[in-house]
Amino acid sequence: MAQTYDSAGAHTGERALDPAIFGIEPNVPVMHQVVNAQRAAARSGTASTKTRGEVRGGGRKPWRQKGLGRARHGSTRSPQWRGGGVVFGPKPRSYVQRTPKKMKRLALLSALSARAAEDQVKIVESFEWDTPKTKAATRLLSAIGAGGKALVVVGAGDGIVVTSMRNLQKVRTLEAGQLNTYDVLWADTIVFTDATIGMVGRTSYDPTENDFVREDEGGDGA
Length: 222
Known about the structure:
The chain has 222 residues and is an alpha/beta fold. Helices cover 28% and strands 13% of the residues. It has a domain at 2-26 and 97-197: Ribosomal Protein L4, Chain: A. Helix 5 (159-165) links the parallel strand 4 and strand 5 (171-175). The protein is elongated and about 95 Å long. The relative contact order is 0.19.
């Protein structure tokens, strides 16, 4: 069951949740694998170092091979020299991990079921706000018991809601079709509307590094 509220935060009742989406046994290993894949996809993979063949200079042998009692060297760009190349250093690469769609879906439903089992799934019947108001968003979240980190699932026409909540550090907004395991597990409370609660599980979403929310872009990074 999920508690329902109006746009002012007044309690209006409760609603039964679909057990096929919010009532399954959470699969922790699958959630762990999918979240790791999401976080890996967010890595830029642009770290790069130069090998001894890419460092400028060092073409001349620093001293002759024998007779000086010194170690033999053929180039001042060898890894043991200051300013030399790097051995086995990072090169640009992709960190994307292949994750089957069925695994992503199972992980998402597991995360939603875990939050529902904790009574942390809330439903706001509709957002009847004429203009964006951060204070109204703060009062609503406080009234419904979403004082910690909250994920608000909005519809395509809820631009006012997104604008009202974008300045709240512990709040993220996502459209129903963009729900993913990482953001569901990041949040302490999931807030749906009458329109978006029925969209969950009806669409498949494949998060990429372009729409992944990095920890240093708002929020407290927990």
